[in-house]
Amino acid sequence: MMLEKTIKLNRYFDYYGPLLTDRQKEVFKYYYHDDLSYQEIADILNISRSGVYDTLKRTENFLIETEEKLGFVKKYDKLIKELSELNI
Structurally, how many domains does the chain consist of? Predict the structure, then answer.
């Protein structure tokens, strides 16, 4: 389940990452791309561990809500599926 969530959030990040603040991008990348712990991220960014947690949760929620509203990832997946069925 965690792997599915990670894959989904990384895909959303690819699409909606430019809409995030620099701090949100930084925390997301450290956690999901570099596999750092909350404490390691907190030490690097000189913020509290709870600050890392809050930023990460807000970022995850933003990415999920943005996909629910815009649906770009879902539309892209549908288009790729239709194209593959056409053998293009």
Answer: 1
Residue 44 token pair? 């690097």
Distance CA 34, CA 75 (A): 28
Domain with 55, as residue range(s), is 2-85
Q: Which residues make Cβ contacts (< 8 Å) with residue 82, sequence separation at least 6? A: none
Q: What is the pLDDT of residue 87?
A: 76
pTM: 0.88
- Structure tokens given for 3: 């792997």
Q: What is the CATH classification number for the domain harbouring 38?
A: 1.10.10.10
pLDDT in tens, 40-55: 999 999 999 999 999 9
Classified as helix, coil or strand, 71 is: coil
Query: What average pLDDT score do residues 2-31 get?
Result: 96
In total, the chain counts a number of residues equal to 88
